[in-house]
């Protein structure tokens, strides 16, 4: 079975097993005051290093908050923020931000859109790189029911960092290193996807999804 088929199989598994109690968006709005310092009003961050979370999938937001609290996803700032949150709080915040509208992003004029579009839509079979749109959709809207996140209009700087953090897992394995890496992706799909990407491809993809809408 090829990698693309494996991704779809994993997606179906996520859909069938991923359930959580939906939160209360009204309560989440009240609780979101602390989040606005970094993520902006209604989840639209103005700082490129902090992600836009407006319109992100409810289940995905909930999982990331839980992962920050458990340590499955490492971030010192977020660890401090989520430390006092209950699962109910997380569900409420996820419900609130998922219902907000993301502000439209734009790719830089000098971005290598041709390279990025080829990888995003078709992957690279020779290197075992699956097409991004298999999980994130042709317009980057993701698959909320499977916890595959929306990428459309996300800050390019944030997206590039996440891709490099996933790739770092493979680099660490090859070099016996222990540099910070991200490992909280389901079935190691992002770790597998990014291990063959170079910096130019990562930067191009980050710019490309920033302009999707």
What does the main sheet amount to? none
- Which structural class is indicated by helix and strand composition? mainly alpha
Radius of gyration, rounded? 17 Å
* Beta-strand percentage range: under 5%
Strand tally = 0
Distance between the termini: 32 Å
What low-confidence regions span 5 or more consecutive residues with pLDDT below 50? none
Give the overall pLDDT as a whole number: 93
What form results from the Cα inertia axes?
globular
Q: Can you give the helix content as a percent range?
A: 40-55%
Sequence of secondary-structure elements: HHHHHHHHHHH
Annotation field: number of helices = 11
Characterise this structure.
It is a single chain. The protein is mainly α. 52% of the residues lie in helices and 0% in strands. The protein contains eleven helices and no strands. The chain has helices at 3-17, 25-31, 36-39, 58-70, 76-82, 87-98, 113-122, 133-136, 156-175, 189-194, 199-210. Helix 2 packs across helix 6 (87-98), helix 4 (58-70) packs across helix 5 and helix 4 packs antiparallel against helix 6 (87-98). It is globular, with a radius of gyration of 17 Å. It starts with a helix and ends with a helix. The model has no long low-confidence stretch (mean pLDDT 93).
């Amino acid at each position: 079975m090829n990698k693309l088929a494996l991704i779809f199989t994993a997606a179906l598994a996520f859909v069938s097993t991923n359930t959580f109690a939906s939160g209360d968006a009204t309560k989440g709005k009240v609780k979101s005051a602390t989040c606005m310092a970094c993520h902006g009003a209604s989840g639209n961050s103005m700082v490129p290093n902090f992600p836009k979370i407006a319109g992100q999938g409810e289940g995905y937001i909930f999982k990331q908050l839980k992962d920050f609290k458990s340590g499955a996803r490492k971030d010192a700032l977020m660890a401090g923020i989520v430390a006092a949150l209950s699962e109910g709080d997380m569900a409420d915040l996820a419900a609130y931000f998922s219902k907000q509208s993301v502000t439209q992003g734009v790719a830089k004029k000098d971005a290598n859109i041709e390279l990025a579009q080829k990888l995003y839509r078709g992957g690279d079979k020779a290197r075992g790189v699956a097409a991004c749109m298999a999980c994130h959709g042709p317009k980057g809207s993701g698959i909320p029911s499977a916890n595959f996140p929306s990428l459309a209009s996300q800050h390019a700087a944030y997206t590039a960092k996440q891709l490099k953090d996933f790739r770092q897992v493979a680099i660490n394995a090859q070099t016996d290193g222990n540099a910070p890496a991200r490992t909280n992706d389901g079935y190691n799909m992002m770790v597998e996807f990014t291990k063959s990407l170079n910096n130019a491809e990562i930067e191009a993809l980050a710019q490309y999804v920033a302009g999707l809408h």
